[in-house]
Amino acid sequence: MTRDHESTMSTSGITETDRFADLLPATRRTLLHLVATTQVQGRAPSLVAALVRDGRPVWAAGRGEVDGREPDPEATQYRIGSITKALVAVLVLRLRDEGLLDLGDPLGRHLDTPAGGEATVAQLLSHSSGLAAESRGPWWERTDGDLRPAPEDLFGERPQRHRAGELHHYSNTGYALLGALVEKLRGEPWYPVLRREVLLPLGMERTTYGPEGPHAEGWAVHPWADVVLPEPLTETGLMAPAGQLWSTAADLGRFAAFLARGDERVLSAASLAEMRRPAVEPQNADWSASYGLGLQLIRVDGRVLAGHAGSMPGFVGAVLASPEEGLAAATLANQTSMPEVVSLAARLVLATADAEPRIPEPWRPDEDADLALLELTGPWYWGPRAMLLRLGAGRTLDLAPLAGGGVRGSRFRPEEDGTWTGLDNYFAGETLRVVRRPDGTVSHLDLGSFVYTREPYAPEDAIPGGVAEGGWR
C-alpha cells in the first residue's frame, strides 16, 4: 500500500505518519463488528463496506454470500440506486464551470421539456423544483423503461406538485430531466459522458450502466420470516439518471474520497464545496438533515457528513464523507428494505474518527504568501466591534470576531480586480474592497458598504455619518 505524506523522520527511518497510515487492529475489529451485526440485524443476504482515509483505501469487508462465497468489496457489483444522482450532479456542475449554463438558469432555457421548465437548474439539483416525486404509470423502479419512451411519458396530469423553490420535495423525475440536460449540452448520452469525465478519472472502472459479473442478485426479505424473494432486474430508460447504475464498495469508496478531498481533474474544490452546502431548509425539526446540490447532508454527533443514499428493488447503499476528518465510507447490500446501511456508513466514519483522531499536517510557512497584503492583517473595527483579519493561502482572507462569536465573519477569495468575494456566512457573495488615501496608505475596508477602520470611531476615520464631536467620553 502507498504511504501517507511523510513528516518528521524517526531514528529508524519510519515517519510518525507512516506509523499510523493503516488502521489500528482494535479499530479494524470495531468496524468489522459494525458490519457483521448490521448484516445480521438487517437480514441482508450480503453486505459490503469500504473506508477511506485521506483519499487512501484503508479497510474493507464483506459479509454474507453471493454465489456461494463471501462478497468481494473490490469486485462484487451491487445496484446503487439514487447514488447515481450525486454522480449526475457532478456532471451538471462541470457544465456550469465550463460556462455552458448558470445554476440560476431556468431549465427551459436549455432543454425543451414537457414539465419543470420554469425551475432553475439549482432547484432541480436540490429537489426544490416542485416536480412530482415519481414518474407516471406503474412503479418505475420495477417496470421497464420502454413503458416511458418519450419525455412526455414521464409526467402525469399534474407534474408540478409545488411552486418551484417553495420547499424541498424529493423528485426522481427532476433528475431524469438533469440527465437529459447533460445529453443536450454534451451531444451524447449521459452515461458515456459520466464514464469519460468522472468515473475513469476517479478510478471507478467497476461502476457501470448495467450489471457486469461478478454481481449480487437483488432480493426482498420477508418481514416476518427468514425467507427471500428475487426482485426484478429492470432497465429504467429515461429515468436512469435517477437510479440506474451498478458499482462496488471499493469504487464507491473512491467516489466518497472525492467528496471528502476533491479532484481538480473532475471538479474544482470550490464547486465541490458548493455541492456540500445546504441549498434547502433542513428536513426535520432537529436540523439533522438537509440537501445540497445533488448531495444529502446529515449531522451526527456534531459532524456533518455529505453523500447520498440509494435504493432499488433488491438493493440499498450509501456513501458518506467527512471532509473535516478526512474520512469517507461506502456500504452496499442486496436487500430491498434496509435503512441500516445509511447509519452503518455514518458509524464507520464516526467510529474511526473517535478511535483514531486525525493527525494534522505539520504547520509550515506559506512560501507563496503575498507580503504586500500583510498591511491588511490584524485588528479592524466595525464601529466598536473588534474583528481580526488573517491572510491565508492563495491570497485568501478570513474575517472573524476578535472575541466572542456570531458577528458577521466570513472567508474571502481574491478576485483579479484586487477585491475579494465573501464565501460564507453573512457576507457570502459580498465584495470586500481596500480603500486607500491619496498618499496610498490604507484608509479603511469597505465590505458591502460597511466600513472597517483601524480604530473604533476615531475622529479622523471615514465613518459614514461622522463621529460625534469630542469623541469618546
From TrEMBL:
The lineage of its organism: Bacteria, Bacillati, Actinomycetota, Actinomycetes, Kitasatosporales. InterPro entries: AmpC-like, Beta-lactam-related, Beta-lactam/transpept-like, DUF7586. It comes from the Bacteria. Residues 36-352 form the Beta-lactamase-related domain. Residues 372-454 form the DUF7586 domain. It holds the Pfam family DUF7586. This is Beta-lactamase. Gene3D superfamilies: DD-peptidase/beta-lactamase superfamily.
